[in-house]
TrEMBL record, chain A:
Gene Ontology molecular function: electron transfer activity; heme binding; iron ion binding; oxidoreductase activity
Cofactor(s) annotated in UniProt: heme c
UniProt cofactor note: Binds 2 heme C groups per subunit.
Organism expressing this protein natively: Sphingobium ummariense RL-3
Protein name, entry field: Cbb3-type cytochrome c oxidase subunit
Localisation per UniProt entry: Cell inner membrane
Biochemical pathway: Energy metabolism; oxidative phosphorylation
Amino acid sequence: MADDKHIDAATGTEFKGHEWDGIRELDTPLPRWWLWTFYATILFAIAYTIAYPAWPMIHGATRGMLGWSSRGALDKELAAREAQVAPIRKAIAETPVEALPGKPQLMQAAVEGGRAAFRVHCVQCHGSGAAGSKGYPNLNDDDWLWGGDLATIEKTIFDGVRNPDHAATRMSQMPAFGRDQLLTAAQVDDVVAYVRTISRQDRLGAAAQRGAKLFADNCAVCHGPAGHGNRALGAPNLTDGIWLYGGDADTIHQTVWNSRQGVMPRWGDKLDKATVRMLAAYVHSLGGGEAAPVVATAKGAGDAGR
Amino acid sequence: MPPFNPLPLWGRNRRAHPIMLMPAGSSDLYERRKGVYPKAVDGFYRRLKWAVMVVTLTIYWVTPWLRWDRGPYAPDQAVLIDLAHRRFYMFAIEIWPQEFYYVAGLLIMAGVGLFLVTSAVGRAWCGYACPQTVWTDLYQHVERFIDGDRNAQIRLAKAPWTPAKVARRLLKWSVWLAIAFLTGGAWIFYFADAPTLQQQFWTGTAAPVAYATVGVLTATTFVLGGFMREQVCIYMCPWPRIQTAMLDEKSLVVTYKDWRGEKRGSLKKAEAHPGDYGDCIDCNQCVAVCPTGIDIREGPQIGCITCALCIDACDKVMAQVGRPRGLIDYCTEDDAEAERKGAAPRPVLRTLLRPRTIAYFTLWCGIGLAMLFALGARTRIEISAQQDRNPIAVRLSDGMVRNAYTVKLRNMEARPRPMAVTVEGLPGARLWTDAMTRDEARPVLAATVPADSVAKLRLFIALPGAGPQRQDFRFAVRATDREGGGDSEPARFERPQ
């Protein structure tokens, strides 16, 4: 092969044997450093597949000698982050929720932490903006079933609503007046008419007047004589502009006939104390948060429904 | 059995690489570097260079240590680029990131300033003030101090590596390295409080980026100033090319006045044939002193950084042989033509005033004045408002509708300022924050914004539930201290459909 015809005179290098329009390609050898680099990359690749997970097997893949895994790396990152915020979480867990506003930095950390936790645990029902939907309260407004101060919100989140397994849970049991035949169909209609009146949606008519009597006998024990509700019992204020299920006559009729039994998990079982406290701080910060109960009681019970 | 060959692809040919077969020097892709050993020289321009070196190096090393009292809320370093807090301090001026156009303006001024300097005095930047020139000059001075002048340096370069040479080299490189370290070290002090950072630096508690920066700049200073030198100017730097394009026939360049100098000849020859020879005695001093190793007598060239050391060298020789100075001198191309035809040399200063330089100067001043005006008139208070989008509107228990806004108040002064936020265009609107209850809502909300920072407020406005679905209004802020000032920002109030 290496006869004179195949050697380029100027460089002494062999030709490849191709020719295009008189241009011939030299078989120039690779630089030595290039070749060594090439071998080094091969060695690196072999070492890499030994050290790290690489070869697919029937069930999974080789694990690699270093024991590295992307899940493990994530865990490590999460643990590092956890360790970073641990002192803050500890401080929040050790500070009673009423005392949080007195420590603005801690309160801010709690609100931000609560915002993150809310995205994970609460948005499924209450929505990403905490605006709720039918049957799931809007947490932005100033209407609270159980109370809107920090401690009360925290207790509501911690114990949940209508969890039969826990004595401490928020429990309000409105009878199914129609279904359980506590009231006749006509009586339910009258009560609905009356509720429409006290919420200033309808004028006072004959049905509503009949309903007033029924309301005083059946409903006032929880919702109060004027229908302002009772937070101690979780009885909603029926005179305001906010309806959890709806304020139109049909929906109120359904509510009175069947009752409503909305539930919320007992988050105290699922989340640590600091997270629940942060959630309370976040919910309180949304705009409807109320001052501590001492102030609320000082203002008078008549204000409680507002 | 053939011996094990780890390089089969290579070994099959068993021939040297084509490059090695080429005749030495004939077809190298790169020109071999010639050693440059500039000779020491004294004279007007050399002294000017010393002065420029002292001034520029002093500015570089002293500036971070200057203090400037800005009160208790801002750093007291006169010149500080605070990247962590995104502030740039320069004496009485403080620049926020959104005001970066001032820096852009400064860069434009620097650009126009270079145009001005280039059109007036040619490559004066290259010859006197460029860091590469200044540090190379400093390094060469160190080199002469340790190795001796040009001839001694050439001898030493050719000498074998005896212990004495190694010792000299190590000494020289150590001094270079020390200068390089001081150079790289000073840079970081522009980016943090200098005394604090120095202490942190030596106790090992400074940020890793500080050490990395010092390391990189030390290395580049050492290599560029000690070894690459004129190669940077000739091969690496784009500026000579740009400047070459910007020079015209009225720009000052270092000129060898060939009509006076040619034909070159030694004093002896000139004495023997007085009529045949010019003023140049071919002593090669202009080449010996040149820091880029060129021969200026070959005419203007890209290697000439117009440091004018050859002018000093030639003037000295001319004085010794009793001929007038200025055989090599600053001269414009036009003047060179005139002189060639017999005109008298024109004073250098006369060449500076011409339409092009005046136009550049006017432009430069105009940009500067515009920036000063803008700096004087800029507002130091700003407000921005962002409406909550999820949910946009919240119906309250009394039937009213509440909107929430994240309002940012920006106080760009280095002292806390009391401010008042109001709403314009929403009659009866009252404001409250998430730290207040709705009962405390008021038409004017007072807030004290800390010095040199942005205060973030979450503001609520509640309006009756009945009304237009959308109302445009403005958030307004004004400072309630003596100085006053204010800003406003459009926003909108929305009701659920």
